Amino acid sequence: MDLGGATATNLLVNGDFETAIVDPWHTWNNTGCASSISRQSGNAAVGSACARCDISQTTGTDWHIEFAQYNRSLVQGVNYDLTFWARSGQPRYLSVGSQKGSPDWRNYGLSQRLAITTNWQQYTATFSANETVSDARVQFFLGETTGTVWLDDVRADAAPAGRVPPRFQPGSGPAQRHPPGEGCQRWLGPPAFDGCASPDV
Ligand SMILES: [Ca+2]
Question: By the 8 A CB rule, do 106 and 193 touch?
Answer without folding.
Answer: yes
